[in-house]
Design goal:
Elements (H helix, E strand, L loop, with lengths): L1 E5 L3 H13 L3 E5 L2 H10 L4 E5 L7 H10 L6 E5 L4 H9 L4 E4 L4 H13 L9 E4 L2 E4 L4 E4 L2 E3 L3 H12 L5 E2 H8 L10 H13 L8 E4 L3 E4 L2
Parallel strand pairs: 1-2, 1-3, 3-4, 4-5
Antiparallel strand pairs: 6-7, 7-8, 8-9, 10-12, 11-12
Helix pairs in contact: 2-3, 6-8
Length: 223
């Protein structure tokens, strides 16, 4: 296991570090918030131990910055402050656990192992692409070869569903179920109309049509 310790108390930091090395962990040590934030954002760790009160940047800011770049590494706060308000703030900023100083090393080790056993949650996708078609799911934009393609909300939903299943035929029924609400009153040719509009918008000059019609079955997008 690779662990990052962000702790400005040199004695405590060395005690924790030595105890982890004895368990054959790989350990990096940062002595202030700025260094801790840089390491936490830049390198892969299995667990990060983060002091609340740090020079340069406090633990809450460090935690927020690490989470801000999409890192899902488990973070455990180590703090002398036994305050419900601070504990809640730490958890709300992305911490996974909070341990009050002083503590027994055995408890710290057990908490580290428990955090390491938790399944890692992948950050949500922000973009999808097939070939030179790129969808930004946060901004709800589509480009092809760098050129902006203006789609309606439903057209965006249909294209997103196709790209998520690229290389696989998807039926009209599946598209309808995933893009329209159950109580929508849509016409029999609604899917065909939306698909025709999407293809027309995507097939700008010189660009191949990546969407194919599987006669009587549905549609597929692929290179």
């Amino acid at each position: 296991m690779k662990v990052l310790i962000v702790e400005d108390d040199p004695n405590l930091a060395q005690v924790i570090k030595k105890s982890l090395i004895a368990k054959e962990y790989t350990v990096d040590l940062a002595v202030d918030g700025s260094e801790g934030s840089f390491l936490g954002k830049s390198y892969d760790y299995d667990v990060i131990m983060l002091d609340y009160s740090l020079p340069k940047k406090n633990g809450l800011d460090v935690c927020k910055e690490i989470r801000g770049v999409g890192r899902t590494t488990p973070i455990i706060f180590l703090s002398i402050i036994d305050s419900l308000e601070i504990k809640v703030a730490a958890l709300n900023h992305g911490a996974d656990d909070y341990l009050v100083k002083p503590f027994e090393l055995e408890e710290l080790h057990a908490r580290l192992e428990a955090l390491h056993r938790r399944p890692q949650i992948k950050p949500p996708e922000t973009t999808l692409n097939v070939g030179d078609i790129v969808m930004n799911l946060e901004k709800r934009t589509v480009t092809r070869g760098g050129i902006t393609i203006n789609l309606t909300r439903k057209e965006f939903g249909v294209l997103e569903y196709l790209i998520r299943h690229q290389g696989t035929m998807v039926s009209r029924v599946l598209i309808m179920e995933h893009v329209w609400t159950a109580d929508s009153d849509i016409l029999s040719n609604t899917i065909e109309t939306h698909m025709r509009n999407i293809r027309k918008k995507l097939n700008i000059a010189g660009k191949p049509d990546l969407i194919s019609n599987v006669t009587g079955r549905g549609y597929m997008i692929s290179l």
